[in-house]
């Protein structure tokens, strides 16, 4: 066990990190005293990111009525929080790669991750979350399986064994991971998130989507991402190694005041929204 933990820690150090600029963007966007100009000044330090943000803002994903020509205009129209998450999604997807070293397909993995991102945002909208915070749920869904990236890239033999046993036994992926690796992708995800200075909502998304928290200010992120993850598997959008679909617990249904019919209704535009959101992975 100690050897596994040591190798995980070493592997986290080897993973590409989010740039100092990305961390600065998050810091400014989360500061209530920040202005649109403050965020503009920081993002403009990276011309490539600036161009990408403007391209995304003008995409069908946001469906704005007029073309945005400047970064400051984008921030004014969409808000600091939304632009922060566009930049964070772009940085994450651009830096984190699934190496083709195992039987887990990179394309399928990212299709699943994008599906959970879109589904999380749609469910948050269904539950009445303020529009300026919806992108928080998108990024939470996008990164929820970050722990699997580390397992795939640095424990390739173990990942193939996990996939094999998961397929044979139709067991919960976390149970198989515990058996093979002694650690789950959720536990590894939390370690990566802390290293990357993620705030509590994202830590709950990566670390509690298989066993959601029911109380606390960040619990809703673990519950929404958990429901999104389950239904994206049911809808067979991509594949991230889970051959068994764990049901949503009654506690989660009751806490969110949701049911299957309402979820399927909320997720009815998911394929169209995924096509719009694919820009995030380019």
Give the assembly state of these chains.
single chain
Largest sheet features: none
The helicity comes to: 55-70%
Kindly provide the radius of gyration, computed on alpha-carbon positions and rounded to a whole number of angstroms: 18 Å
CATH topology of the largest domain: Hypothetical protein af1432
CATH class of the largest domain: Mainly Alpha
Average per-residue pLDDT, rounded, comes to 90
Distance between the termini: 38 Å
User: What proportion strand?
Assistant: under 5%
Whole-number total of structural domains:
2
The counted number of beta strands is: 0
Poorly predicted regions are: none
Order of helices and strands: HHHHHHHHHHHHHHHHH
Coarse structural class: mainly alpha
CATH hierarchy: architecture of the largest domain: Orthogonal Bundle
Instruction: Please identify which CATH superfamily of the largest domain we are dealing with.
Output: Hypothetical protein af1432
Note the overall shape: globular
Count of separate DSSP helical elements: 17
How are the SSEs ordered, and which strands pair?
Elements: H1 2-14, H2 20-30, H3 36-43, H4 47-57, H5 71-78, H6 80-95, H7 106-126, H8 134-143, H9 146-154, H10 156-169, H11 173-181, H12 185-195, H13 200-207, H14 219-234, H15 250-256, H16 260-266, H17 270-277
Molecular structure report:
Helix content is 66%, strand content 0%. The chain folds into 2 domains: 2-15 and 99-281, Hypothetical protein af1432, CATH 1.10.3210.10; 17-95, no CATH class. α4 crosses α6 and α8 packs across α13. The chain is built from 17 helices and no strands. It has helices spanning 2-14, 20-30, 36-43, 47-57, 71-78, 80-95, 106-126, 134-143, 146-154, 156-169, 173-181, 185-195, 200-207, 219-234, 250-256, 260-266, 270-277. The protein is globular, with a radius of gyration of 18 Å. By secondary structure, the chain is mainly alpha-helical. The protein starts with a helix and ends in a 5-residue tail after the last helix. The longest helix is centred in the middle third of the chain and has 21 residues, at 106-126. The model has no long low-confidence stretch (mean pLDDT 90).
